[in-house]
Structure formats: structure tokens, C-alpha cells
């Protein structure tokens, strides 16, 4: 199997802009009116207290925001920040023109061709993490590939964090669902890096996703997770789940106004907790199938919403997050073309963080082993696309044309042979190099070949080295926390 080597990616192309500048400002103004007139329901008393102290109007659970306060606080969010990885070579820069791809995070189920769709468990979670470690195009793990439903819900995050630290040497996401899960991620990361919370704040390690409850609600667990993480100097990606026609207006303009207002409200809260806290503007705006009410992904609306959201994120000088999604229930053509549409919208919308970039299936209910590999193949293609076209060696190209002359070919020319290893994209999943060899394999499709590839990656996995003293300290921390949480 041929992989591209690990590398930090930079998008050298101008983003696609589907909104005119005046339309971006219109969405901004509408968002501000929504926050000042209608307000947002903030269910956490602690969060409401922070906002009230800053001058927001609080009426029971509804908080109304002063537009000047929002503008001032949002301006404090940095346009770029770094996330340390256990392997320093895999430290990420989030923002600017940088692009990072994450694996799928959060499904309840997992799937592969051999074992079918099933509830996730700890053993298979470990398998998935090992394959993620092996795929160099995946820059960050996405916060648990699927739930280990064989473990107690109160403590399974501890087992996940331990495996993330042990099995990976790349960046990983924490869980922002409540104070305890967020705090445990911070404390275990500090142990892994041999530092304390102050040291971790100086050089952030954790990024976590905070979702609002659209429309216009921030619940208690997410507010707690947000405040715990930003209070410790760690990064948060604020992502409303705005499905046009369901929990958002049926038009993209209305859905974008709602998304934008929720991001701005949570950004204001985060900056009041810790000025300068690293944040990401998250977009997950799509539409629903109006005949069934089920979410639709990888649609033209999804793609345009991603590109428009990138314009809004740049309007506020914030890094931008989008996703790779599909509503398909199988690793089939639908899954591929919806993912391709999603990825195109994300990358050409200027996304700095592409969440769920590999492995997402069934509208986010399932993490697929084969989809993980096929998505990695698409990501490698995108990585090649992001590279600039160079014309500084045009004289060499002219020499090559002169060497071959009219009516010739370039297969064996010096110009071609000098670039044989690097000049052209070579697929990871497909194998058309030898028809007889392809036919002997039964003319297997891409999904079947992906099945063989993830098994090969799993068999070849080697655990990254970890200081035994650090590992022992982590095990002791997990045992202590389990005792405290389970009694």
C-alpha cells in the first residue's frame, strides 16, 4: 500500500466565496439583532453569571447580548494557534492557510465487511485507533471513533483518553460534555506531556467540539465543558448543528444567520472566561430531507453552506471548521460522491480543520473501517490538489519537449524519469498497474480492497514509545478517577 508521508498541509488556493461582501455583512447584522433582541437560552447558571457580569441582559434563562460587547470579545480570539502532539513533528497549526484532517468521532456503532454493523466496544475502538495512527494523512483523532458501549458511561472517557495517549503519537480531541470529562482530558494530557495546567495553557494540547442545541440554546454540559477547557487555555471548536428545515430556517440565509449568532454568543462567553482563548468557528449547516425529516449530507446546500461559513469565519478572523459527511448507510457510490462534495465544500471554503474527514458513515451513526481507508484515499488526492502549480522549471520542460520532438512520447524521457517517484499521484486503494494481477484478485471493488488495507495496517501497527513512568501515572490517575466517579 502506498501512502504519502506525514506532512503539514497548506491550502495555496483562494477559497470559493459564494456570498458577496455585502451579504456577509447582512448576515452579521442579522445575527447581532437576533442576539440583542431575541437572545439565547443559556441553561448554565455559571455561564449566565459570567455574561451578566459583563453587562448582558439576563431574564430567567434568556441572555441578550450587547452588540458592542460581542464585537469586542470576538476580536480577542486568535486567528491561528498550535496544538502540541506527543510526536513534536506532528504538532498542528490551526488557522491561516493551514489544513488539518481528523478522523470520525462520536458514533455509537462501527462497521466492517466481515463483522457487519454492531455496537462499538473497547477492543474494536482500539483497533480503529491503531489504523488511525497508521494513516499519515489523518492529522488528528476526532474524540473517540465510536462509543465503547461495553464500558460504564460515567467512566468510559477515561479509558478512551488512556488509549488515545498510548496508541497515538498525533493530536487527539477531548470531550466537552460536562466539567468532569473536560477536566480529565486536561489533567491526563498534562501527565502525558510531563507538565501541569499552567504549562498546558502556555502550549495547548487539547481541542474539543462544543455543540449548541439549535435553535438558540446552550445546555449545561456543553457550557461547563466550554468554560473548563478555555479556562485551562485549551482550544474549543464551537459548532451549531443547524439543519435547514428542521431546527433552522429552510433557507440557507436563515440557517447561516442562526449558526452565526450561536457561534458569536459562545465565542463571547469563551473570551469572557479567558481573553485570547483559542477557538474555532464551526459550521455544520446542512438540510433535511423534507419528505422524511432525516438529515441530508453532502448536498449542494451543505457545500454552499460550508463555503459561506468560511467567509463568515474569515470576517471575524477565526479559524474555520467544516466536515466530511454522508447520509449513505453503506460504503458505496453514494458515500463516495457525498463525501467528495463535502470535502470540496470544506477545503475550498477555506476550512482549517476538517472534522470527521475519514470514517463517517450513516449520517454519523456509524464509524466504518473501510470508509476510513477510502476517505484517506480522497484526502491524499486533496492534499496533492492543495499544492501549488510550479512553473519555475519551464526551461527544463522546454528542453524535454525539444528532446522528444514531434510525434514522440515522454514515458522514458529524462524529464519524466527524474520525477517518476514524486511527480504524479499514485492511488492507495486502486490497483490498475497490472491487469492480470487485478483479475486474479477477483476484480475486487474499492470497498473490498479497503477491507484488505485496514487489516494490513492493523497487522503492521507498532505502538509509539511512551515513558513507563508516564504510563504508570496515567493508569493511577484513571484508577483514582474511576473510584471517585463510580464509588
Question: Any overview of this molecule?
Answer:
- With 487 residues, this protein is an alpha/beta fold.
- It has a domain at 9-18 and 75-385: Trimethylamine methyltransferase-like (TIM Barrel).
- It has helices at 21-38, 45-53, 67-74, 122-134, 156-167, 179-192, 197-202, 220-231, 252-273, 300-315, 333-348, 369-385, 394-404, 414-417, 435-440, 446-460, 468-486; strands spanning 9-10, 40-42, 57-59, 62-64, 80-83, 92-95, 98-103, 109-112, 116-119, 140-141, 171-174, 207-211, 217-218, 235-239, 243-244, 279-282, 286-288, 295-296, 320-323, 353-358, 360-361, 366-368.
- The strands form 5 sheets. Strands 1-7-20-19-16-14-12-11-10 form a 9-stranded mixed β-sheet.
- Helix 1 (21-38) packs across helix 9, helix 4 (122-134) packs across helix 16 (446-460) and helix 11 (333-348) packs parallel to helix 12 (369-385).
- One of its GO terms (molecular function) is methyltransferase activity.
- Belongs to the trimethylamine methyltransferase family.
- It holds the Pfam family MTTB.
- Keywords: Methyltransferase, Transferase.
List the helices and strands and how they pair.
Elements: E1 9-10, H1 21-38, E2 40-42, H2 45-53, E3 57-59, E4 62-64, H3 67-74, E5 80-83, E6 92-95, E7 98-103, E8 109-112, E9 116-119, H4 122-134, E10 140-141, H5 156-167, E11 171-174, H6 179-192, H7 197-202, E12 207-211, E13 217-218, H8 220-231, E14 235-239, E15 243-244, H9 252-273, E16 279-282, E17 286-288, E18 295-296, H10 300-315, E19 320-323, H11 333-348, E20 353-358, E21 360-361, E22 366-368, H12 369-385, H13 394-404, H14 414-417, H15 435-440, H16 446-460, H17 468-486
Amino acid at each position: 500500500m502506498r501512502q504519502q508521508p506525514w506532512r503539514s498541509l497548506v491550502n495555496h488556493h483562494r477559497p470559493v466565496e459564494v456570498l458577496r461582501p455585502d451579504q456577509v455583512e447582512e448576515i452579521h447584522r442579522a445575527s447581532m439583532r437576533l442576539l440583542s433582541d431575541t437572545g439565547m437560552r443559556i441553561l448554565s447558571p455559571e455561564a449566565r453569571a459570567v455574561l451578566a457580569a459583563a453587562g448582558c441582559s439576563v431574564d430567567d434563562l434568556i441572555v441578550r447580548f450587547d452588540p458592542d460587547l460581542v464585537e469586542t470579545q470576538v476580536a480577542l480570539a486568535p486567528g491561528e494557534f498550535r496544538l502540541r502532539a506527543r510526536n513534536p513533528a506532528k504538532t498542528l497549526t490551526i488557522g491561516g492557510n493551514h489544513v488539518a484532517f481528523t478522523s470520525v468521532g462520536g458514533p455509537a456503532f462501527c462497521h466492517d465487511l466481515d463483522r457487519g454493523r454492531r455496537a462499538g466496544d473497547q477492543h474494536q475502538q482500539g483497533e480503529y485507533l491503531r489504523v488511525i495512527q497508521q494513516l499519515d494523512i489523518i492529522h488528528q483523532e476526532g474524540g473517540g471513533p465510536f462509543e465503547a458501549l461495553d464500558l460504564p458511561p460515567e467512566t468510559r472517557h477515561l479509558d478512551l483518553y488512556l488509549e488515545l495517549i498510548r496508541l497515538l503519537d498525533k493530536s487527539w480531541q477531548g470531550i466537552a460534555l460536562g466539567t468532569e470529562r473536560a477536566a480529565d482530558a486536561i489533567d491526563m494530557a498534562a501527565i502525558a506531556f510531563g507538565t501541569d495546567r499552567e504549562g498546558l495553557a502556555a502550549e495547548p494540547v487539547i481541542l474539543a467540539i462544543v455543540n449548541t442545541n439549535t435553535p438558540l440554546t446552550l445546555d449545561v454540559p456543553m457550557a461547563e465543558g466550554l468554560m473548563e477547557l478555555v479556562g485551562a487555555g485549551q482550544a474549543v471548536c464551537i459548532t451549531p448543528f443547524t439543519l435547514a428545515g428542521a431546527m433552522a430556517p429552510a433557507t440557507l440565509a436563515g440557517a447561516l444567520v442562526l449558526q452565526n449568532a450561536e457561534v458569536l454568543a459562545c465565542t463571547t462567553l469563551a473570551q469572557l472566561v479567558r481573553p485570547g482563548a483559542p477557538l474555532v468557528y464551526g459550521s455544520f449547516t446542512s438540510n433535511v430531507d423534507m419528505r422524511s425529516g432525516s438529515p441530508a449530507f453532502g448536498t449542494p446546500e451543505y457545500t454552499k453552506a460550508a463555503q459561506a461559513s468560511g467567509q463568515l469565519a474569515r470576517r471575524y478572523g477565526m479559524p474555520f471548521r467544516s466536515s466530511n459527511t454522508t447520509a449513505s448507510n453503506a460504503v458505496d457510490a453514494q458515500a463516495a460522491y457525498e463525501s467528495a462534495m463535502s470535502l470540496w465544500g470544506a477545503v475550498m471554503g477555506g476550512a482549517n480543520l476538517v472534522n470527521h474527514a475519514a470514517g463517517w458513515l450513516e449520517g454519523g451513526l456509524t464509524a466504518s473501517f473501510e470508509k476510513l481507508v477510502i476517505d484517506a484515499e480522497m484526502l491524499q488526492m486533496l492534499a496533492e490538489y492543495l499544492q501549488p502549480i510550479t512553473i519555475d522549471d519551464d526551461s527544463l520542460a522546454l528542453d524535454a519537449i525539444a528532446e522528444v520532438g514531434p510525434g514522440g512520447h515522454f514515458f522514458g524521457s529524462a524529464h519524466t524519469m527524474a520525477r517518476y517517484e514524486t511527480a504524479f499521484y499514485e492511488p492507495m486503494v486502486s490497483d490498475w498497474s497490472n491487469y492480470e494481477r487485478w483479475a486474479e484478485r477477483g476484480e475486487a471493488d474499492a470497498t473490498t480492497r479497503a477491507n484488505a488495507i485496514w487489516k494490513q495496517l492493523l497487522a503492521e501497527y507498532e505502538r509509539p514509545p511512551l515513558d513507563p513512568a508516564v504510563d504508570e501515572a496515567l493508569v493511577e490517575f484513571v484508577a483514582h478517577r474511576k473510584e471517585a466517579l463510580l464509588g
